[in-house]
Design goal:
The protein is an alpha/beta fold and 199 residues long. A hairpin with a 2-residue loop joins strand 3 and strand 4. It comes from Marinobacter mobilis.
Length: 199
Amino acid sequence: MKKLLTLTLCSTLLAACAAPARYVDPAADDGAVTMTMDYRDFERAADDAVQDLLASGVVDNPSGERYVMVVSRITNDTMQRIDTDQLVKKIRVALLRSGKVVTTTAVGIDGAEDEMNMAARELRASDEFDQSTVQEKGTLQAPDLSLSGKIIQRNHRVEDEQQVEYYFQLSLTDLRQGFAVWENETPIIKRGPNDSVSW
């Protein structure tokens, strides 16, 4: 009983001495760099891609209208379980704000991103809905452009340290002709102790 009481007291004291949780301001974060990917890496890769894409001029529509883009497959070829949407969402937001591109959610590699696009159109057969408010046939727009890509990880030994390389590779395809009209690769390279975890 004495041992149990001592262990409980020690655990409580250790927990009380632990640093409290706190918010981190991403714009002013100078925290420790991890060997795994973190939000700063996605921010950097997305910003690099968007700046390069806008500077290339391929999304400057001669008609002045916005291009319609669909997101294709972004493959995760790293040792980490990551949600590639974290990268794609940042790119989509920046392109939408540029006024040059909108993203369709009506189609996608694995079906519609937002299934409500089709579900709302099924209301045409219902007497319960005012048909003047239901979406008409032929109003969805097909995409002009498709964004696809891959995130690659490579690990190397460099003297007494390990080097982890991440490559964010993106392609923008003109769906009318099937040509890749823009491609970009952003490398993010980290070097640290061999005992650091990179997955």
